[in-house]
Write a structure and sequence with these properties.
Layout: H1 4-60, E1 75-83, E2 92-99, E3 104-109, E4 118-126, E5 129-136, E6 143-147, E7 156-163
Antiparallel strand pairs: 1-2, 2-3, 3-6, 4-5, 4-7
Length: 165
């Protein structure tokens, strides 16, 4: 049978272990917290650079800020592609925007008119796989704006002309 002194010693030893474990955990958390703080500052700076680059690109390319296009004021350009379109002589420009409403918008410029029985089909290319974003009529102002949601991480985009349905 253990004496009261031995029992007190065991309790004291158990408390010391808990305190030592707490100190070790705290020491491990401090560098991790510092690392996350540094990373958040780096990401904030990278986002600021993207915003500046997007604003500069919009100015250089003459994007207009008419009320019809006021969503551009609340968006930053993330990436841009030049994409050939079947049955069209010149490639179209596709721009991926991050809108302040946290949705991703795809702006497709220079789409030509199609015959009544045809539509544009827009595809996202993710890791070599094609995923349809839908069928679209040629817009009257040669621009098409698509909210692409989860397909924002696409490697690229493709546009084909198909018989309308």
């Amino acid at each position: 049978m253990a004496t009261p002194t031995q029992i007190a010693y065991r309790k004291s030893l158990s408390k010391r272990r808990v305190i030592l474990f707490s100190i070790v955990v705290l020491m491990a958390c401090i560098p991790a917290t510092y690392f996350l703080f540094i990373k958040s500052n780096e990401l904030r700076e990278e986002l600021r650079q993207y915003q500046q680059a997007g604003e500069q690109t919009q100015k250089e390319q003459g994007e207009d800020y008419t009320p019809k296009n006021n969503w551009l004021q609340e968006s930053i350009i993330i990436k841009q592609w030049s994409v050939p379109v079947s049955q069209q002589d010149k490639p179209v420009t596709i721009k991926l925007y991050l809108h302040t409403g946290s949705n991703m918008l795809l702006l497709i410029n220079s789409l030509s008119k199609l015959p009544e029985d045809q539509k544009y089909q827009v595809w996202s290319l993710i890791k070599g796989e094609r995923k349809s974003l839908g069928l679209f009529d040629a817009p009257s102002d040669d621009r098409l704006i698509i909210d692409i949601g989860d397909d924002a991480m696409a490697d690229g985009f493709e546009i084909t002309v198909v018989k309308g349905q």
